[in-house]
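Weekly modeling sync, notes
Attendees: AB, CL, MP (scribe)

Item 1: holo prediction request
CL wants a bound-state model with heme C before deciding which constructs to order. AB pointed out that an apo prediction alone won't tell us much about the pocket. Agreed to run with the ligand included and paste results into these notes for async review.

Input as submitted:
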Amino acid sequence: MNRKLLNAWYVLVILAVALLLAPAPLRAQMAHTEKPAADPARPAEQAFKNIQALKGVPADQIQPTMQFISGSLGVECEFCHTRGAFEKDDKKEKETARKMIAMQMAINKSDFKGEREVTCYTCHRGQHNPVGTPVISEEEPKRPEAPVPGAAAPPALPSADEIFDKYLQAVGGAEALKKITTRVQKGTISVRGRGFPLQVLAKAPNKRATAVTQLEGVNVTAYDGQTGWTGVPGGRPPADMTRAETEAFSIDAAFYFPIEVKKMFGQTRVRPSDKIGDHEVIQVTGIREGKAPLWLFFDKQSGLLLRMVRYADTPLGRNPTQIDYADYREDSGIKLPFRWTIARPQGRFTIQIDTLQQNVPVDDIKFAKPETMGPKTIS
Ligand code: HEC
Ligand code: HEC
């Protein structure tokens, strides 16, 4: 491979890995433009060079906000930016976007009581040029079926607690789960048709580290129970996750999630849902005080968790992440998914686990943020 190709490929991989493991496709790109944030909550205009429309927004929200914009318009960063010079106003699309940010804020303020109802996605729907005229479709549009008089009422739904209990039983029960305190999983992560070796380390109650090996070294995403960080190889110091990323990763890190899920939410709502693959599912929406909701989809028959959708708030809208769990297998009396797919508007990645070891010693040091990233940080 020539150097240029290798570089492009490398950037793609880092991007993909960052996107997968922490909801941060931009970290690798931004690492060069942004100084490590001293205080993640300080205003963006102090941390960045040319903030006008998003003044007052916490610095660590810029990255997810840019993700939201890109996802809403279905474009890459380069649509508005020159790589490596994000502060420059050299593209008219960036100027337009600034006006659009002001417009969105004004519409919501004047017509939606200040609630964030209209977002970039409301109009753009994944395109940079919104369509203003209804489209004539090839087929006759489907009309909703009228209710049949006298038809049986749909069966009553179980309560969220019943669904959570069934899930806990399905994965082996609290007693069996609690007997396990560490986990080492090895497998492959597939990114746009390419596979890379991956290792996941987990330790009760809430430590988790994921390492992906590729040509230049090991990419690590980790949470030590308090701090989340990501490191790319090359001797640079690892970067802290944003608060939203830490929050999201801490859910994955909850070692006893099937036990804890029952206490996680202030409020829950149960509703029927469409099928996932061949499985009939039931949806529980979990609402946590002051946070975006979490959607959980359970297999009606087996009780297992098949999908989680979580949202990260940004000043302009919510970034969704969907994780699908599959290939549940039994080991040491508990059931675990051996495959999961993480999907975002920008792309999807699949992890397939080949080997699993439980209750082997895993040193706390593996989760702690190192000073700098060596070529190999965890092994
Ligand atoms: C549709 C246009 C658009 C896209 C796509 C976009 N941005 Fe931006 N970006 C902007 C605008 C507009 C600003 C300035 C916001 C302001 O004035 O407050 C900005 C500002 C930034 C800044 C702050 C630069 C500084 O020092 O002032 C960074 C960093 C950034 N964007 C990164 C990204 C990354 C990374 C992506 C790709 C994921 C991205 N942007 C995608 C429009 C865009
Ligand atoms: C109320 C609807 C609406 C909202 C909300 C909206 N846009 Fe737009 N946007 C449009 C329309 C319509 C156009 C096309 C204008 C034209 O064709 O001249 C457009 C064009 C653009 C363009 C220029 C695209 C190109 O191909 O040159 C950018 C960039 C853009 N919008 C960014 C955003 C961003 C970022 C947000 C969210 C902060 C946003 N828009 C929110 C309706 C909207």
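Recorded for review: The mean pLDDT is 87.
Action items: CL to compare against the apo run; MP to circulate these notes.
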